[in-house]
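ok so i was messing around last nite and threw this chain in just to see what happens. nothing serious, just curious
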Amino acid sequence: MAEITVAAGGPPDALDADLGWALGVVFRAYVKSANALFHDLPGGPRGYQVLAAAAQETPGRQGALAQRLGIDKTVMTYLVDDLEAAGLVQRRPDPADRRHKRIVATDLGRATWRRTQDLLDHAEEHILAPLDPADRTTFRDLLRRLAARAQSLDPVADTCQIVTDLAPDDPAPRRPRHAPRP
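result:
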C-alpha cells in the first residue's frame, strides 16, 4: 500500500483529509489480504468469523451469532452446514434451551482458527506497519469504539443488505465512447 505524502509543513489536501477515502483504502488493503487467507475456508471471511466465534466459545445461539455478525439467518444455516461438513464446527443443543443450537468448534476447527488467526495477525501488522506499536493499539481501540457505537445506533442485521442500500438506483455510469478520429 502506498503511503500518503503531504507537502512538508503543509496541511493534507482534501483527498488526504477525506475519512471515506482513507477508510476505503485501508479496508481494500485489508480485504485483499484477508481474502487471500480465507480462499479455502468454507464461507470465506464470514466462515472465518463464525469459526472464530465458535473457537473462542463466544456465548450465544446460532441466531444470536447470525445477528451479531450481520448474516441473514438463512445464509447462516448454509454457512454452518458448510463448516460442519468440513469438520470445523458442530451444532450442539443449548443447555439452557435444547430447542436452540450453539455452534462449537471441533479440534480441527480450533487448529484451523489458530493457524488462520496467526496469518491474519501478520497481514494486519503489515497493513498497520506505518504506525508504531502504541499507535496500533490506540487505533484498534478507537476503531472498536467507533464500530460499537455505529452498530448500536444502526444495527446491521444482514451485511449483504448494505450493498443493496448503498447501490444507486441507476446503473453505474458508463464511460463515454470516443468517436474514431478522422
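not much to say yet. The longest helix spans residues 107-127.
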